[in-house]
Amino acid sequence: xxxxxxxxxxxxxxxxxxxxxxxxxxxxxxxxxxxxxxxxxxxxxxxxxxxxxxxxxxxxxxxxxxxxxxxxxxxxxxxxxxxxxxxxxxxxxxxxxxxxxxxxxxxxxxxxxxxxxxxxxxxxxxxxxxxxxxxxxxxxxxxxxxxxxxxxxxxxxxxxxxxxxxxxxxxxxxxxxxxxxxxxxxxxxxxxxxxxxxxxxxxxxxxxxxxxxxxxxxxxxxxxxxxxxxxxxxxxxxxxxxxxxxxxxxxxxxxxxxxxxxxxx
Length: 265
Fold this sequence. Notes:
265 residues, ArsR-like_HTH, 9 helices, WH-like_DNA-bd_sf, DNA binding, Arc Repressor Mutant, subunit A, globular, IclR family transcriptional regulator, Beta-Lactamase, alpha+beta, 6-stranded antiparallel sheet, two-stranded antiparallel sheet
């Protein structure tokens, strides 16, 4: 999910170390601006030039910012950090081949979502043959209540974890089809548990449908979800209710079998 803020803070929580929070505000600004000078960042963040210069210099010395004649930009050090974190996900390691096959066989976008801080994070995606770029790219955040993989994750959570989501999660209304009412959403999640699949029908985007399935680890924990997604034209009728659901369920079963085998080996 894209938004104005790339660096998220815990709601209603003041950061104990304000200097660290300011550094990440600078990082967030550079994510959106790509390249910027001290003056531009100072104006945008309502900070003094000396403060911005100090934070940029610190980031540069640590290898997270590169400075040239056009200004400062983020370095690929962030990519290294993200890649290492992603590689620790057993779901990412095991499921990539299955996602590639799902995208090839369905012609639709396919990917992996993991659960983090009441949101879904796309850690892997592959574009379908009819698209030039995936609707969800790696690093995108998605709302759990309004997407197929998100609802699949919610349905697989323990009762305690699900209650915590309803207490603290933000259920934004993205389209007229978005389910924000707790009782209605709980009923939807019960249906997801019964069928093993979660459907997304114009709930996050008016022109998008999707199918998601939660993936449990070898010890029964919820690791995330896999998904396919397409336009309302490409994912409808038999493609929505017969062909592609079987594709997703088969991939889910193979992934979970591999994860179980990795635990018992």
